Amino acid sequence: MHGGGARPADQFRGRRTRVGGDDVEAQRALNAEAPQIPHLLARIRALFAGHSRKLTVTVILVLVSAALSVLPPLLIERAFDVGLFPPSGGPNLQALSVLVALMIAAYVTTALLGVWQTWLTATVGNSVMGELRVRLFSHLQAMELSFFTRTKTGVIQSRLQNDVGGVAGVLTNTVSSVLGNSVTVIAAFVAMLLLNWQLTVVALILMPILVVAQRRVGQVRARIAAKTQESLSDMTAITQETLSVSGILLSKSFTRQKTEIARYADENDNQVHLQVSQQMSGQWFFAMVSIFLSSIPAIVYLVAGLLLTGGATDITAGTIVAFTTVQARLLFPLLGLMRVALDLQTSSALFARIFQYLDLTPAISDAPDARPVPEVTGRVQFDAVTFAYPDAAEASRPTLDAVSFTIEPGEFAAFVGPSGAGKTTVSYLIPRFYEASAGRVLFSGVDVRDLAQESLVSHIGIVSQETYLFHATIAENLRYAKPDATDAELETAARAANIHNTIESFPDGYDTVVGERGYRLSGGEKQRVAIARVLLKDPEVLILDEATSALDAISERVVQAALDTASRGRTTIAIAHRLSTIVTADVIFVIDGGRVVESGTHRELLALRGTYATLYADQAPERLPEP
């Protein structure tokens, strides 16, 4: 598949994908932004297909546990009326012992079933989450480079962490909540009716008052929760900006530490105030719950007394105790069911956002008949290649316009030209990080679109201007190119890159941790480690993308010597800004306005007195020879 492409990622905003449990309106608004995915429910069911047995057992456990939860109140009625206060005589200890044993058995059984249910739901939920996370990560690895240049890293991380992480709670919370609360509420109502229908009417009249109170308090907490979340986001942003290596360097270089401390302290004070407000709003809510929970049984006692005074004969002490016990267990399942629709919608929204990424089609992928590089010669050819970046305006000129050239095996070729002329784009097209809009890019005589990309890239080494090192040891960074490399191979590569002696001078040698993005090393040291890493890969074609442009003169000479060693015996393609680094190149291609306007050796191009000569004169006018 050569064509096609991912949809624009502008729509993938860096929004929170899950908000506080009380922030109902905000969650509904966020759910409404979820993409519309065809056959969403069928695709969700397919994710759980491999766990059908555990899911079936989970449903059975939820139903049994919910049903058992209302059994103890019924046993309590019998314990009072038959065991403690029988119609005749004193307590019936034999009957009471049996009833107590049944109650304890019900409690123990419910607890054990709850542990089993929790294990099953946690296992299934987290297994599906883990499978989805790996599947999504693998799919993102296959996406083309342009997807990452136009999509914020935070948005991608949100898909992997927040959305996929929320999937585990779908089964654990939503499914079990719907089933368990529904059965509990139904069973409780049935038990209450069996105990006494008049008292059931009284409880049903009073229950909505508590539900309304919960909603009102919940709305207040929702507003505070939203503000608290925003404040936490601001504090996190300040931390990331100021406590990163780059942020610390910036604040110290401008002596703005006090300003940053004050900014963080102000936001921290706001966070403290919001946290106190949130805690207090919760206290008022629980106080109201306590009042109502205490009031309903009291009112039930009063009504029971009135009924007994009126001659009711089906109300006993056991009936009243059992009834209030059931009623007390009815509130929170009712509140849980009120959120069922929102929870189901939230779960669907999470899955929809995940499937949205999984449905993205990589713009660049292997053709069905793609094959490994048949014979690596190191020849690189552009045949009338035209290229425009995917997000470029249609009316704009292409970055490369009908560019043709040939680099023979073992040649050192350089590309120079004004900034924005298209030099780096050439280096992206050779390993097929981008797809040519027209024309052909050939590697060892074969169109790169006919080659398996993994095979193609395995024969190409790239050293860029911005060296990326992991927060790991030097040895681990080097072995990224060859995981099974021996210590001797590391040393050989490091010596060739002119960095071995420097590494040995460190107290921990090759076990030195380089820090985030290699900040513990100088620019020249990082670049030479990167060169050693490429040498360990031992590619037939080496691409140097302005590998020394960010270095000082001394570091440049050291790194350039390492590059000269690295390029020996390989086809080398250098994208150069400093022309002094490529004067010995076998061929120099001058790109201007997306076209190759000149080509030749350094001396030949100077003799032309054209674009190259002008660029060279601007950098070193005293070196320009007389005509």
From TrEMBL:
It is a multi-pass membrane protein. Keywords: ATP-binding, Cell inner membrane, Cell membrane, Membrane, Nucleotide-binding, Transmembrane, Transmembrane helix, Transport. The chain crosses the membrane at residues 55-76, 96-119, 185-213, 284-309. SUPFAM superfamilies: ABC transporter transmembrane region, P-loop containing nucleoside triphosphate hydrolases. InterPro entries: AAA+_ATPase, ABC1_TM_dom, ABC1_TM_sf, ABC_transporter-like_ATP-bd, ABC_transporter-like_CS, P-loop_NTPase, Type_1_exporter. One of its GO terms (biological process) is oligopeptide export from mitochondrion. One of its GO terms (molecular function) is ATP binding. GO terms for cellular component: plasma membrane. Residues 380-618 form the ABC transporter domain. Coiled coil: none annotated. It is found in: Cell inner membrane. It comes from the Bacteria. Its main location: membrane. SMART domains: AAA. Residues 57-346 form the ABC transmembrane type-1 domain. Signal peptide: none annotated. Belongs to the ABC transporter superfamily. Siderophore-Fe(3+) uptake transporter (SIUT) (TC 3.A.1.21) family. This is ABC transporter. It comes from Cryobacterium arcticum.
